[in-house]
Design brief:
The protein is an all-alpha fold. It has one domain. Strands 1-2 form a two-stranded antiparallel ribbon. The longest helix has about 30 residues. The chain is globular.
Length: about 220
Amino acid sequence: MTHQWEPTGDVEQRTWVLTAVLAALAIQFLIPTQFRLNPAWVLPTAAAALAVLLIIGGRAVEDPGHWGLRAMAVALSAALALGNLLGVAHLIAALLRGGGIDAQSLFAVGAAAWVTNVVAFAVVYWELDGDGPVARSRRTDVSQADFFFQQYELPTHSRWQPRFIDYLYVSFTNATAFSPTDTLPLRSRAKSLMALQSFVALVAVAVVFARGVNILAAS
């Protein structure tokens, strides 16, 4: 592992982070009302309010690594993840009770849960790795990184640093393969988060989508 690193000084702004979060927020409205937290508008409203605060704060605070902005970003992703988990839990409870659920509702909940899972954890990984985007832009030692990217071993990438798209890719592959692929978690907190994400993705895919396919096959 390459430990000597040249700081880039290039701090990634939150434009793409907010874009992904707002897209995940919009997908929440695909979930049928009965599978949302009651009242159904609570989590979408809270997530939208936090997104607005992030936009305003991102313009008002020169340093995008300000602890308040990072805390709000984590709170936003936690709100999305909470709504995601509650929706899946309500759906599984309904399946166990034997309630009549159509395949469209199952697929809607499963798709929303999977996409939200990917976005929410990507935001957390982006904020968590190496203590945030500002710290990553200033570091000279990658030994404290939470994730090990293959570029760290390439001499031609001595000034490279991961961007949000890299963490979105890590989140996507982890939710798809249920395990790390080309990027490895190095610290316990990263491993714990990836394990939790894989579990949620597994439940959404194995339970929700599998049940939906069975309903279609039986119809």
